[in-house]
Amino acid sequence: MNIQTKKFFIDGAAGRLECALDLPAADQFSTPRGVALVAHPHPLYGGTMDNKVAQTLARTFTTLGYAAVRMNFRGVGASEGVHDAGAGETDDMALLLAHMQQQYPDLPLALAGFSFGTFVQAQLQQRLHAQGQATERLVLVGTAAGKWAMPAVPANTILIHGELDDTIPLIDVFNWARPQDLPVVVIPGADHFFHRKLQHIKNLTVEMWHR
After folding, report:
1. What's the gap between Cα 186 and its chain centre?
2. Percent of the chain scoring above 90 in pLDDT
3. Mean of the pLDDT values across residues 148-159?
4. Where are the extended beta strands (E) located within the chain?
5. Which CATH entry fits the domain spanning 4-208: 3.40.50.720, 3.30.930.10, 1.20.1260.10, 3.40.50.1820?
6. If DSSP codes are grouped into helix, strand and coil, which group holds residue 113?
């Protein structure tokens, strides 16, 4: 599949933000069927929009026919500003969403994140819900339960976690998901970064997306 990637910048609240847009293959989708925002792991621990899990999520959504967009959070790569513990990052993701909605108006919105990025996307979903804006679905990989104050998420959220994750222990995700009655898909033998297990993220998300 031929995936086109375009780098661009938007103006964030604390300076310019470096972004990347992946479009679905033109021979399969004449126009995108939705927009997917992908959030990367923690900036202070090497997280960037080129993280392998973030890239896998972007490719997953192009397979589903979505225009998938990522950004480098503040202080990462060519993005200006400094890390803001999730608050500023959520503001910036909302600005990226506004930019995408100008480019692709009236399309369904999906939110996806990995690790710290799950915290940002869950906060953004709550903000959008309070504003009356709908999100089609969330995909959260390595959900940052226990590390960050993860809010509740919609019942149709896809949660994927590694059995051997020692950054965010599986039990912390269970403890967060249990009161919400949310299923968690556990990948046996997977660590936090899904080394040699990335294909499961794509395959599971594509399989579960239209359920």
Report:
1. 18
2. 93
3. 97
4. 4-12, 15-23, 34-39, 66-71, 109-114, 137-141, 158-162, 185-187
5. 3.40.50.1820
6. strand
